[in-house]
Backbone:
């Protein structure tokens, strides 16, 4: 087997994690800054940053109970064999602890 592709994958995975953490920290700073600005957007040479509102829904107990019933029925169909599935190959990478 070509060991290089495995090592390259592991290195890229570690770099992605570091970059994602850096990006998340910058995002918090940018959001805080834009929330204090009047137009809530900022245009740069690399693109435009804009604050927009996203809806987060909270449902009544009736809907929550229906959701639980739905999950239970899915589990029942899986266990009885009424539900069907397709298996696809998937890569799982477990990084060593340093």
Residues:
């Amino acid at each position: 087997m070509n060991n290089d592709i495995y090592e390259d994958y592991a290195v890229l995975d570690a770099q992605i994690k570091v970059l994602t953490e850096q990006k998340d920290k910058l995002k918090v700073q940018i959001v805080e800054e834009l929330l204090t600005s009047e137009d809530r957007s900022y245009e740069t040479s690399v693109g435009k940053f804009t604050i927009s509102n996203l809806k987060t829904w909270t449902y009544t107990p009736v809907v929550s109970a229906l959701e639980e019933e739905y999950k239970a029925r899915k589990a029942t169909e899986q266990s009885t064999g009424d539900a069907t599935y397709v298996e696809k190959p998937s890569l799982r990478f477990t990084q060593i602890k340093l």
